[in-house]
């Protein structure tokens, strides 16, 4: 009986050791996984990019208040980022008070090669970066999305990937904005900024739309 108990104990220990080895072995592999591995081997990432849908609206802004203080005009605006596939659904709302009435809206555009998307149509990622006034340097602008984080608009884009791989993808996209050539071999054709500005007035809504070539522009409609 003692021998049987000893054998069972040894088997349990061996099984536990195998489980731990598999767990830590996987952790080590994942910890050393590179961006190259992610883009080269990840079928789910390629499927997510291939299935990107076209978009024609990525957000809107409206003036909440405009008033003078100490001889200077200040504009308080509400910026809303809209969901993919549903122009009426907000995924992120922020309010800013900025000196002046000419406001710049800065987005990061990521375009993919024709081989990476389905149907041969131009499809891109549109990441809002910041908003700033005419009297401010762009580097002093107020952030819309948090750099290196998953944008609210694309919260479901990489849903089938492990969290670590999602974080790796978004960190690469944000950090390589100044080095787009590093990702061209993976099917990302270009990463570039697109800043548009508009003189804002109360009673209007400024809807930000995108052209098939990735150009962002504001369309003005009455705030009914």
Mean pLDDT: 79
| Strand residue content | 35-45%
Report the C-alpha radius of gyration, rounded: 24 Å
Count of DSSP-assigned helices: 5
Domain count: 2
Low-confidence spans: pLDDT under 50, at least 5 residues?
12-31
Distance between the termini: 85 Å
Output the helix-strand order: HHHEEEEEEHHEEE
The major sheet is characterized as: 5 strands, antiparallel
DSSP, total strands: 9
Structural class label: alpha+beta
Question: Helix content range of the residues, please?
Answer: 25-40%
Description:
The chain is of the alpha+beta class and 224 residues long. It has two domains: 2-32; 37-222, no CATH class. 28% of the residues lie in helices and 39% in strands. The chain is built from five helices and nine strands; from the N terminus they run αααββββββααβββ. It has a five-stranded antiparallel sheet, with no helix packed on it. A hairpin with a 2-residue loop joins β1 (57-69) and β2. The chain is elongated.
């Amino acid at each position: 009986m003692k021998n049987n108990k000893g054998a069972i104990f040894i088997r349990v220990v061996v099984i536990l050791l195998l489980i731990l080895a598999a767990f830590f072995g996987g952790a080590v592999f994942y910890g050393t996984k590179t961006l190259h591995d992610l883009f080269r081997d990840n079928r789910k990432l390629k499927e997510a990019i291939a299935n990107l849908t076209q978009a024609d609206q990525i957000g809107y802004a409206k003036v909440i208040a405009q008033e003078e203080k100490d001889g200077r005009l200040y504009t308080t605006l509400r910026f809303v980022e809209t969901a993919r596939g549903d122009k009426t659904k907000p995924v992120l709302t922020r309010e800013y008070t900025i000196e002046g009435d000419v406001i710049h809206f800065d987005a990061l555009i990521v375009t993919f090669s024709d081989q990476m998307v389905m149907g041969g149509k131009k499809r891109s990622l549109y990441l809002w970066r910041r908003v700033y006034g005419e009297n401010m340097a762009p580097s002093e602008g107020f952030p819309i999305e948090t750099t290196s984080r998953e944008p609210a608009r694309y919260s479901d884009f990489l849903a089938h990937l492990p969290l670590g791989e999602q974080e790796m993808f978004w960190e690469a996209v944000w950090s390589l904005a100044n080095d787009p050539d590093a990702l061209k071999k993976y099917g990302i054709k270009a990463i570039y900024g697109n800043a548009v500005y508009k003189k804002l007035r109360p009673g209007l809504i400024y809807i930000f739309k995108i052209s098939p070539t990735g150009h962002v522009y504001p369309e003005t409609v009455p705030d009914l």
